Fold:
Amino acid sequence: MKVHHLAKQNSILNKFLAELRDVTVQKDSMRFRRNIERIGEVLGYELSKKLNYDTKEITTPLGTKQTNLPTNNIVLCSILRAGLPLHNGMLNYFDDVENAFISAYRHHPNNDEEFEIVVEYFAAPSIDGKTLLLVDPMLATGRSMVEVYEGIKKYGTPKEIIIVSVIGSEEGVEYVGKHFPEGTTLWIGDIDEKLNDKGYIVPGLGDAGDLAYGAKL
Structure:
């Protein structure tokens, strides 16, 4: 799997990431959501450079202009609920794509640190022969991303798969790389070294869903 780790290079992205991580700034849930959205825009712009392009003649009021335009048939798929701000950021740039939404959450059957990934809700078009953009802000263990991919297979076989995340762990990136098809690419803001006993990224930023939308029962 080809990994594009954007935080390795200096850019305004690092400011957005820093504010997401900062325990003081992240208390502002509106700013937290907006920063994830802005990171989605940055990631979308960067990955757009690797899409397929054809030349098209555009008619202006004063003449014509040859312009290279992307030709990928894209389905943008986010994992509810934490993926919504990232989805919106990507959608700001890929405004004419098809959309898919899938729910995935951690279920602790024994009320301990062990958990399983439960996927319940699917709303998706056909992904057969298309470019599938799978977006989720936190790539922790990687298990949610893999379970979602296994579930969305019933909608077809994509031509290519692009995973988009804000922050991941080294373990999660490695796990996804082992379970996704050859040729999959990952565009990610930053990669942290480890997970804690509960499967959260360290240093990470905490629970992205709770910070964006409030604590859940």
In short: The chain has a mean pLDDT of 92.
